Amino acid sequence: MSRPTNKHLFISIVLFVLTIFLFSGCSKADTSSKNPTKSKKLYVYNWSYYTPDSVIEAFEKEYGVDVVLDYFASNEEMFAKLKASGNAGYDIIFPSGDYVSIMMHEGMLEKIDTSKIPNLEYITPLAIEKATYDPTMEYSVPYYLGASGIAVNKKMVKEYEKSWNIFSNKKFADRMVMMDDMREVLGDALAYLGYSVNTTSAEELEEARVLVNTKWKPNLVKFDAEGFAKGFASGEYWVAHGYAEAIFEELPEEKWANVDFFLPLDGGPMYIDSMCIPKGARNYELALLFINFIHQPENYAQFLDRFHFPASVNTAAEQFTTTTPFYTVDMLKNYELKDDLGTSLDRYNKAWESIRYIN
User: Fold this and answer.
1) What per-residue confidence (pLDDT) applies to 7?
2) pLDDT tens, 294-303?
3) N or C: which terminus of the chain has fewer CB atoms within 10 Å of its end residue's CB?
4) 306 contacts 52 by C-beta, under 8 angstroms
5) For 199-256, what is each residue's pLDDT tens digit?
């Protein structure tokens, strides 16, 4: 056997180095696929006043990652941002049920591997019953089920009807605000008139549009989805349509007794906000860990306590809560989940445009 030449030796060394490099690369790839926390960041896009700091901090500590939070004020804002830029870099988003349905049909969501989320066993029958758009949680996991209501400053307003039609009361003109949210406002009007919040009847929708435009809107300062709670807290508004968690978040607790927050018996639109993973999310496995972590009963109880919510979605969390909710699950009995309107959405958009942009 002859000794190797310098040329042969050089080739052998190169091949050996390449082999080590390739083996090392494969090992890293395998490790990465099994280690969902490798990226060290989880990008979350949620509603304002809706993310408990204590739970986020506990998740970050347990998994050694950073949660990067961005906020949106309406489904339309969230949808437009993701539609314009793909997933916009987010790993978890929180759309309402009607937008879950829309985004499913648009192919904008990843399927959820439910086998990796054992805490789904705690999802309430009510949430599963209402989530007709995704009953097997193939694309969405319920986060919270609730409704918007009306906050009244009892120091300034003494006599009032506990109805959506409070906004027709001229005594409170220029001291009232409704949310800048098409489905909420039109849904409130439809419910007050005795119609479904998901009606596809042109006549019923027109009746609701006229009610808002001629009876409610003239008494409003404006429609506002972001500042209604701050305006109510500052005294600018005496009557505010909005979410309880936002209203009370802006007020010191010693002033809570001055507020009457109620869900009108008229009924109205109910919502299920869900945790979804946008198509192409970079941190899919970490997102699954986050969803499961949220629904650990002790963690979910912190969410309920933080915002004084009733336990509408998690069956085991209430036993760990320490606060009284601002309203109860029973108060939602007259409320109706907002459905995907399909081809009727354009009719609602036109009705809303005439309310918002035409005097």
Assistant:
1) 37
2) 999 999 999 9
3) N
4) yes
5) 999 999 999 999 999 999 999 999 998 899 999 999 999 999 999 999 999 999 999 9
Distance CA(146)–CA(94), nearest Å, equals: 14
Q: Are residues 260 and 299 in the same domain?
A: no
Neighbours of 222 (CB within 10 A): 14
d(CA 129, CA 150): 26
Q: What are phi and psi of 240, to 5 degrees?
A: -135, 130
Q: Does 97 map to a domain?
A: yes
- One-letter amino acid of 352: W
Q: Considering the domain boundaries, does residue 343 fall inside one?
A: yes
Domain that holds residue 205: 147-270+338-357
CB 123 within 8 A of CB 135: no
List of E strands, the chain: 41-47, 66-72, 92-93, 141-147, 149-153, 176-178, 220-223, 239-242, 259-262, 268-275, 335-337
HSE, CB side, 13 Å, CA atoms: give it for residue 13: 7
Full-model pTM? 0.78
Q: Is the pLDDT score of 17 beyond 60?
A: no
Residues 113 and 193 grouped into a single domain: no
Query: CB under 8 Å to 142, separation ≥6 — which residues?
Result: 123, 127, 128, 131, 272, 273, 274, 275, 313
Over range 123-135, report the average pLDDT. Answer: 93
